[in-house]
Amino acid sequence: MRKNLQLLSGGLALSFGLVLAGCFGPPSPQAGGTVDASDRPPSQETASVDKPLLEPPAKVPVVVHQDADRSIQLSALTARLSGKGLRLDENDRIVGFRDRTQRATWRMKLVAPGTYQVESDTLCTGPTREARMRVRVGETLFVEELSELSENAYLLAKTSLGELKLDTPGTYEVEVEMVGLPLVGDFAIAELRLIPGEVEPSPLPKLKLDEDSDQKP
Question: Which residues form the signal peptide (predicted)?
């Protein structure tokens, strides 16, 4: 009798263990051999494909310094381009102007205040002068003029856009906006220049050398 009770107790324990294993074990595959994603542990969940991609930071234009003759050369290679379609062509000229939302921007370091003539080198092959360029320097100053026509499709034309008086040394932002565009022909910007006219005298005192300083009294 006692032996039968021991066998019965062992069988019940084995059955109870199998029941627990069925309750807490891994999920059984559904039809088709797959496991429902809701049954996966949190650590096994797949990454969401709806996460937005991070956009690359906007390009910051380099600071262009004055040359020894106090002129400032702003080439297309040192510009920051903003607006859909604006780009550099195979000749390193800014092309793709279509509307007034597009901008070409430079940063320049001014050390010699004074009056500067703003010039541009552009390719403009339209039959008439219709490309009107506005150049802003700083927050309040700007010049605006129609670009000269190129003699042919390969020759740049120089245009004098106007004069600006820059009174304070420092770093300025120079921005080009095309107020008007030619309906026919090509247009491209190769370079902007600031050519010094009247230059303000330096506030620092000049050192005066005495010609007889090497002679003793």
Answer: 1-21
